[in-house]
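re: that chain from earlier
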Amino acid sequence: MSETCRIIALANQKGGVGKTTTAINLGAALASKGKRVLLVDMDPQGNASTGLGLAAGQRRSSTYDLLIGSDPASEGIHLSGVEGLDIIPATTDLSSADVELMSTNGRSRVLKRRLEELLADRGDYDYLLIDCPPALNLLTINAMVAAGSLLVPLQSEFFALEGLSQLMLTLREVRGSANGDLRIEGIVLTMYDRRNNLSQQVEADARQTLGELVFKTVIPRNVRLSEAPSHAMPVIEYDPTCAGARAYLDLADEVIEREK
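^ sequence. v structure.
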C-alpha cells in the first residue's frame, strides 16, 4: 500500500449507528482541511454514494466492478460534489459480490490488491475511507485486510459496548491471519444527547473500558445532520455552523493528530 495514504475502514456490524454519516462527513471534513480523500462505498445499500449526490444512473463503475471486474481500479473513481473528496460508489450489484468472491483464490485480499493498483496509479490521496456494510461478511473482511486501521462508530445507547465484542474478535482473527498491522484508529460516540443520562453513562463506560481508544469528540444528535443526506450534501456544506458540522470538523482534527 501507499506509504502516504492512510486507509481507514469504518465498521460496525450493527446498523443505524451513524457509520455512513461518519464516512461522508469525516471525509468532507478532512477535505475541508486540505486533505485529498477517496471514499470507497462497500455497503450494497449505497447510502454514502447517494448522500454525496451520485444517483444510481450516474454510477458508471462501482465497488462491485472494483472487486469482480478487470478494468483499471482507478476507473471507478467519481467526483463528488465536495472539493477534495472523491468516491467509488456502490450499487445493489455489490450484494452478490461476497458470494462471487467465495470461489476466488485469496478472496479476503481482493480489495487490498485492487487498492494497491489504484494507489499506484493515483498517488495523490491522503486518506482512503472504506464504508463497510453493517455485517461481518466477506466485504467487511476485505476492508479490514486492506485497511491500516479501523474506526468504529458507537451509538450512545444501552448495550452499545456489548456489540463491540464480535467486531473485536473479528479484528483479532484478521490480525492473526491476513493483516498483522491492523489497529484501531478509534471509537467515536455517535447520536450523543448531553441531556440524556444514558448517553453520559455510555460515554463514561466507554472511556473507562477503552480509554484512549475513544475519541474526545462525540457526535451529537442533530437535526441538521439528519437533514443533510436528503439534500445530497455533507453537513459542513449544508449548515457549516451547526453542532453536527462542528463535531465532524473536530473529529477530523483528532484523526489528523493521531497520524502524528
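The longest helix spans residues 243-259.
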